[in-house]
Amino acid sequence: MIPLSPAQKPFDDDPRSRLFVALDVPSRQEAENLLSRLGGSVRRVKVGLELFFAEGPRFVEVLAERGYEVFLDLKLHDIPHTVYRAARLLPAGAVLFLTVHASGGREMVRAAYEGIREARVRGEKHQASPKDVLAVQNSPSYAPPYLLGVTWLTSLGEAEFARFGIDRRQSVGILAEEALLGGAAGLVVSAWEVTSLRAALGPGPIFVVPGIRPAFSRGEDDQRRVSSPGEAIRSGADAVVVGRPIVWAPDPRRAAEAILEEIAAALFDLPPRR
Ligand SMILES: O=c1ccn([C@@H]2O[C@H](COP(=O)(O)O)[C@@H](O)[C@H]2O)c(=O)[nH]1
Fold first, then answer.
1. What letter does residue 227 receive in the DSSP assignment?
2. Does pLDDT of 137 surpass 70?
3. Fold of the domain built from segment(s) 6-269
4. Which entry of 9, 78, 131, 167 is annotated as an active-site residue?
5. Ligand 1 center–CA 211 separation, angstroms
6. Mean pLDDT, residues 184-200 taken together
């Protein structure tokens, strides 16, 4: 694995690079409405199963054409052969992050990585010279689309881990290793595990944290390992994913801006990136 230096990670000083709004809505029309309500407060979006089933890969390309950076959260999980063949068809030029379940094992993650590499070359072929294609083909692992390995879903709480007979902390470490050894550039983790993973793995891997519940939205739902946006960033997350606290807010733009302020304050408290 070629470690990514912190400076190479796809984040910048704009707090908007640290926030992915989950477009968890059932149609392109609803996604468009939400995006127009969010205005310029958001630059990065996450497309998950719901919107992808509704609108397919073409809408991912439309979002990218409009300047949004897209996290395609399909959480691939199958035998390596199947994952490889699916990943080859990724609209590579339109995607910043793609997820796989780390529990598929390092061979499966590697298959996704190889599929992405082919998708990247195929996408480039339309505009690039053979020399450029070769350069893309030989590029280091960490060019977009970046592959992220999902460790344990943030909807799993201590009751589930007890029922499964699994040690959460230890097994998250194993899953992280499987993902990174398979070629993932980073992980999707809960804020509960970020501090220990960052300490163990260093600044290189990208950590993206869902299960974000700002103070204004706290209430019962299906998320179990939750944190505020500020806590997640201070613990070592590079970025957070937020769905319902923004999507279901009476004023989504105001909610996004409050979260961005919290992210900015947390970044300000951290030492500069080395
Ligand atoms: O472990 C995981 C992995 C992915 N997600 C996704 O993030 C968003 C969270 O939405 P909220 O409405 O803020 O709960 C959603 O799209 C999930 O599919 C996750 O929550 N946990």
1. B
2. no
3. TIM Barrel (3.20.20)
4. 78
5. 6
6. 97
137 φ, ψ to 5°?
A: -60, -35
pLDDT at 70 over 50: yes
Q: Is the dihedral of CA 142, 175, 89, 211 positive or negative?
A: negative
Tell me whether residue 131 is one of the annotated catalytic residues.
Answer: no
Q: Where are the domains of the chain?
A: 6-269
State the distance from the centre of ligand 1 to the C-alpha of 230, rounded, in angstroms: 17
ipTM (interface predicted TM): 0.99
Strands 95-101 and 69-76, bridge-based pairing: parallel
Query: pLDDT at position 134, please?
Result: 52
Tell the residue nearest (CA) to atom 2 of ligand 1.
153
The answer, yes or no, to whether residue 128 has pLDDT greater than 50, is no
Find the residues whose C-beta lies inside 6 A of ligand 1.
Answer: 22, 24, 48, 73, 150, 153-154, 188, 210-212, 223, 241-245
Q: Rounded to 5 degrees, what are φ and ψ at 248?
A: -95, 5
